[in-house]
Structures are given as structure tokens and as C-alpha cells.
Amino acid sequence: MDTENVSVPNASAACERSIDEMFEHLEALVGALPRMEELGARVAKATWAREAVEADRRYRIVRKELDELEANMSEALALAERARDAGKPEEEVELYERDRLYFAAMRGFKVGPAQNERAAADEALKAGGFASVDEARDAMLPNDELSRLESELEAYRVDYVETLAVCQKAEE
Fold first, then answer.
1. Residue 87 · residue 25 · CB < 8 Å
2. What are phi and psi of 171, to 5 degrees?
3. In the chain, is it the N or the C terminus that has fewer CB atoms within a 10 Å radius of its CB?
4. What confidence category does residue 122 fall into, taking pLDDT thresholds of 50, 70 and 90?
5. CB-CB neighbours of 162 under 10 Å
6. Structure pTM?
7. Could you list the residue ranges forming a coiled coil in this record (predicted)?
8. What is the mean pLDDT of the chain?
9. What's the N-to-C CA distance of the chain in angstroms?
10. Quick one: CA torsion of 39, 44, 46, 47, rounded to 10 degrees?
């Protein structure tokens, strides 16, 4: 059986290996499993961190829009009251009232998205085990490093699955 050769299905490792070499490789892959689990946890934490930070960024954008709409709504209300108190024509007062209603309606359209983004940020913080957005920001990895780690994990997973399949087939 030592001299029997098998083809490794992985195109990048498309070379002939003996069964013994395949089992040794599988053993090395099993030995690397704790490191891969650590990398997987690191990638997961960094992914949750990025999600939390991005959701918080989106929340802040919508929150700013809400604040502006609320300010415009208050201003329109104040203008309507001043116009009314100054005895201005009812049409002018109604224009300010319509502005206030417009800003109130637009605010209403933003409340749900703001709540959704806040909830998404909170969920990602909790899933990642972060106490704050700042802590999540500190746990983020640069895009190139995150991509490299994800690629390394995927290559390991593919190598493990393919090597295990060849070894199982050899034992049949």
C-alpha cells in the first residue's frame, strides 16, 4: 500500500502522493487545527467588529438626519406660532404648519431605519463580545489582513476536506 499513488483532487496540489504521504499530510492538518480554530475566532471577531462599527456609522448618519429634521420641525412650529401671534394671514401660518408636517413626516420615515441600525450595532457588539463601538473599532483588522486570513482558512478547509476524502477512499 505504501507504493500505491493517489491523485489529490486539489488543482493547486495536483501532484501524485503516496498513501503514506497523504496520511502524514492529514496528520499535519489535524495538528494545525488548533491554530486554524484561533484564526477562525480572530476572523469572526474582526468580522463582528466591522459589522458593529459599520452599523454604528450608519446609525450616526440617520441620527444626524433625524436631528436636522427635528430642528427644522421645531423651527417651522416656532415660525407658525410667531406668524399667528403677529396676526399674519392664515395662508402664511398654514405654510409654516405644512412645513412642520412635512418635516414630521420625513422624521417618521427615518425613525425605523435609525432603530434598525442601532439594533444591528448592538447585536454585532454582543455577538463579538464588545463592550463598546470603540472596543470593536480596536478589534477591526485591515481589509488586506482580513482577506489574507480568510483565504488561509478557506485553503486549509479545502485541503483538509480533500485530503480526508482521499485517505478515507484509500482505506476502503
1. no
2. -80, -15
3. C
4. very high
5. 15
6. 0.74
7. 52-86
8. 90
9. 12
10. 140
Q: Are strands 5-7 and 16-18 parallel, antiparallel or unpaired?
A: antiparallel
- Concatenated DSSP letters of 77-104: HHHHHHHHHTT--HHHHHHHHHHHHHHH
Distance of CA 131 to the CA centre of its chain: 17
Angle at 64 between CA 53 and CA 134, to 5 degrees: 25
- Residue 87: left (phi > 0), alpha (psi -120 to 50), or beta? left
Determine the Cα–Cα distance for residues 60 and 111; give it in Å rounded to an integer.
12
What is the model's pLDDT at position 16?
A: 58
pLDDT per residue over 133-160, tens digit each? 999 999 999 999 999 999 999 999 999 9
The radius of gyration of the chain's CA atoms, rounded to the nearest angstrom, is: 30
Residues 115, 134: Cα–Cα separation, whole Å: 20
What is the residue whose three cell numbers read 491554530?
A: 35
Cα–Cα distance measured from residue 95 to residue 137, given in angstroms and rounded to the nearest whole number: 46
Instruction: Write the DSSP string, 13-48.
Output: G-SEEEHHHHHHHHHHHHHHHHHHHHHHHHHHHHHH
